[in-house]
Amino acid sequence: MLTQLKQFYAELDAVAKEISSRYGDWHPCQKGCSTCCSHSIFLVSELEAAYIYSKLESVSKYRRREIAAKARHNLSAIHQRVGYGNWPRIVQSVKSETSLCPLLVDESCSLYEARPSVCRSYGLFIFPENLGVYGCPKVETTIKEHLSEGIQMPSFDWVAKRQAEVLKGRVMPVSAWLENI
After folding, report:
1. pLDDT band at 33 (very low <50, low <70, confident <90, very high)
2. Which residues are registered as beta bridge partners of 102?
3. For residue 45, what is the enclosing H or E element?
4. Closest Cα partner for 126 from 135, 116, 118?
5. Cα–Cα nearest to 5, from 123, 157, 154, 168
6. Residue 36's pLDDT band (cuts 50, 70, 90)
7. Does residue 85 have a pLDDT over 70?
8. Is the C-alpha dihedral spanning 27, 30, 34, 39 positive or negative?
9. What DSSP letter does each residue of 137-162 carry, written as one string?
10. Using an 8 Å Cβ cutoff, are 81 and 97 in contact?
11. What 8-state DSSP symbol labels residue 57?
């Protein structure tokens, strides 16, 4: 399973690299931008959480405690807004909510190598039915400004299909996986 996950991540990274090389002069997804890390409540699969846990072993105990504290803070805020219950119901309630990713440190991902598929695909794919960009308002605005230049962004349908093939197990917000690390 981990081999499939890493292959999927490599595929997403290849698309990101291709988009960056094609549109790098104006595409906002670059080092130092953390808009996506504070724009939504990201859902992470059980397999992805296991991969993140394996990478957390190399992180200092202090940093792990800091990540867990941020995660607990996020979950507390979610529960204050929408209450308690099972995650599928809560997830439906929080789709428009925002939360700072607990892995974000100094505007950068502290586990960039292990970031989940939602992070790797954020801002890089369009929804074919309305040409909306998956996630990032900065990217969506920029693409609309450059539409006359013949921009071609890949469809999110491919990502959704690959996620269904590769990502197994429960899905919860990243903070729920990290609250007790």
Report:
1. confident
2. none
3. strand 43-45
4. 135
5. 168
6. confident
7. no
8. positive
9. HHHHHHHHHTGGG---PPBHHHHHHH
10. yes
11. T
pLDDT reported for residue 51: 96
Distance between CA 52 and CA 54 in Å, rounded?
A: 5
The Cα 119–Cα 15 span in angstroms is 13
Contact status, residue 125 vs residue 154, Cβ threshold 8 Å:
yes
The burial class, CB within 10 Å (0-12 / 13-18 / 19+), for 54 is exposed
Amino acid at 119: C
Strand residues in 100-141 grouped as ranges (E): 104-105, 108-109, 126-127, 132-133
Q: How long is the chain?
A: 181
pLDDT digits (tens, 9 = 90+) for 118-163: 888 877 776 655 555 556 777 777 777 776 666 677 777 888 889 8
pLDDT grade for 169, boundaries at 50, 70 and 90: confident
Query: What tokens appear for 25 in the block?
Result: 């002069």
CA distances from 74 to 14, 78, 99 (A): 31, 6, 6
